[in-house]
Design goal:
Layout lengths: L16 E5 L4 H12 L3 E6 L2 H15 L3 E5 L5 H15 L4 E4 L14 H28 L4 E6 L3 H4 L5 H20 L5 E8 L5 H7 L4 H4 L14 H12 L10 E4 L3 H6 L10 H14 L1
Parallel strand pairs: 1-2, 1-4, 2-3, 4-5, 5-6, 6-7
Helix pairs in contact: 1-9, 3-4, 4-6
The structure holds NADP nicotinamide-adenine-dinucleotide phosphate.
Length: 290
């Protein structure tokens, strides 16, 4: 057994159709692929149809499953409606939505135009709201249960400099997750979130650690367990939260970051730098005083 193995039982998502926004690349692609392996039908969406089609072909070849690729900018409500129409037409219904699409880049906030700020809010917060509202209204009208899983970040609650629009937007997504978990539970709609720590993807690494920054700010060094995440670890958690095994989990945000955010939060955690000999000396000097 290894943490890079798939964890759920075969067929754990059989009979479910799951929409993954931002499903053509990175973490969305890895989570979607595992949903497929577990028997789900998959709908992957983002702006770039060529990327989606290539990913869909690759996924179908690997699993023998069925993948619908639909171009859909989450900021455009008509495109979101059409994407769900196409999903319904092919698969009959949608059972789960993984809100994973996002935009982000690093910058001192005073260098951002208000337009740049709005773009990130439009994709991450309002885009997630668009997809959530369209899916939720359809599920409620059809008296059909549904599951939302929203990808946030740990700075949704700590905040973070240099990614302020993203922090504000992800905090909003987390608030929406918890709010709808209560409000829509009566319709058998669950809402949960995952806050991943560093998981290498081309998208995140190129935008958040461009050029030499990746060497200077090696993300693994900030993680108590001493490494970045493996995509399968995240996919295992996402599949569990998407499946009926988690039927009693609602309104939760699960952090999967090797302890990264707490490392920065604990007031004395930097005492890790103190060598054993110095602890011996400190202990001895305390002993003398007693
Ligand atoms: P990624 O590969 O760049 O994924 C982002 C996806 O969002 C892309 O597929 C992109 O596709 C899509 N997208 C962007 N704007 C869109 C729009 N307007 N409409 C629809 N789709 C849009 O990066 P990733 O690292 O896998 O990130 C996936 C999620 O994980 C994000 O929510 C991110 O905040 C979160 N996350 C990642 C990490 C990490 O370490 N990787 C850590 C914490 C949280 P198109 O360009 O084709 O539209």
């Amino acid at each position: 057994m290894s943490y890079t193995d798939g964890m759920l039982k075969e067929g754990a998502l059989k009979g479910k159709t799951i929409v993954v926004t931002g499903g053509g690349t990175g973490l969305g692609k890895s989570m979607g692929l595992y949903f497929l392996k577990l028997g789900a039908n998959l709908v992957i969406t983002s702006r770039k149809l060529d990327v989606l089609k290539e990913t869909a072909k690759e996924m179908e070849r690997e699993t023998g499953g069925k993948v619908l690729a639909v171009a859909c900018d989450v900021r455009d409500i008509e495109q979101v409606e059409t994407m769900f129409d196409e999903a319904d037409a092919l698969f009959g219904k949608v059972d789960g939505v993984l809100n994973n699409a996002a935009g982000n880049f690093i910058s001192p906030t005073e260098r951002l135009s208000t337009n740049a700020f709005s773009t990130v809010i439009d994709i991450v917060l309002k885009g997630t709201a668009n997809v959530t509202m369209v899916a939720g209204k359809r599920w409620i009208a059809a008296k059909q249960p549904g599951t939302f899983l929203n990808i946030v970040t740990t700075y949704a609650w700590t905040g973070s400099g240099y990614v302020v629009p993203s922090a504000a937007a992800k905090a909003g997504v987390l608030a929406m997750t918890r709010s709808l978990a209560v409000e829509w539970a009566k319709y058998k709609i669950r809402s949960n979130a995952i806050a991943p720590g560093p998981f290498p993807t081309e998208g995140a690494w190129s935008r958040l650690l461009p050029g030499d920054l990746v060497k200077k700010f090696d993300p693994a060094k900030k993680v108590p367990v001493g490494r970045v995440g493996e995509h399968q670890e995240l996919a295992n958690l996402a599949a569990y939260l998407m499946s009926d095994y988690s039927a009693y989990v609602n309104g939760e945000v699960v952090t999967i970051d090797g302890g990264e955010w707490l490392q920065g939060a604990g007031e004395f955690n930097n005492l890790e730098a103190i060598p054993q000999e110095m602890w011996d000396m400190l202990e001895a000097s305390r002993g003398k005083k007693q």
